[in-house]
UniProtKB/TrEMBL annotation:
Zinc among keywords: yes
Alphabetized GO MF terms: carbon-sulfur lyase activity; metal ion binding
Highest classification ranks of the organism: Bacteria, Pseudomonadati, Pseudomonadota, Gammaproteobacteria, SAR86 cluster
Keyword Lyase in record: yes
Organism: SAR86 cluster bacterium
Protein name (Swiss-Prot/TrEMBL): CENP-V/GFA domain-containing protein
Entry-linked Pfam families: GFA (PF04828)
Keywords carried by this UniProt record: Lyase, Metal-binding, Zinc
Length: 139
């Protein structure tokens, strides 16, 4: 069980599964949406995340070409997670966890759109796109 919130504390959520697949995503959508060179996300089934408070303040911006919603607090602007309804997956922004103890990213993904000069890979395996299930199982 994990928990997190946005900067202003209006939106709070709980996660009811282990966060065992965490990656640094370097895709252009993440980079632009965060104003950051990459973002660390935990991939979880969508039904394992529950918004406990502030659902009415949660804005959902659809990125239509990737069929995913960028979900953020409309009060303070904190990006909390991305939701892909078709894949039934959520990529949770680990920086919003209030208890991110002993969590480590396994890999860098979507490096093909990375601004590589700015980024240190920290010795992690790096993939040009999103790794296949087979590749993920080897991490
Ligand atoms: Zn907020
Ligand atoms: Zn991304």
């Amino acid at each position: 069980m994990h928990a997190g919130s946005c900067l202003c504390g209006s939106v709070k959520y709980a996660v009811s599964c282990n966060l065992n697949f965490i990656v640094n995503c370097h895709c252009q959508f993440c980079r632009t949406a965060h104003g950051s060179e990459f973002v660390t996300v935990a991939m979880i089934p969508a039904d394992k995340l529950e918004v406990l408070q502030g659902e009415e303040l949660l804005s959902r911006f659809e990125v239509s070409n990737v069929a995913a919603f960028r979900c953020f607090c409309s009060t303070c602007g904190t990006r909390l997670f991305n939701h892909s309804p078709s894949a039934n997956m959520i990529s949770l922004i680990t920086a919003t966890l209030t208890d991110a103890v002993n969590l480590l990213p396994l890999a860098n993904v979507n490096m093909e759109s990375s601004n590589r000069e700015f980024v240190q890979t920290n010795g992690l395996p790096s993939f040009d796109t999103f790794p296949s299930v087979e590749e993920r199982n080897k991490l």
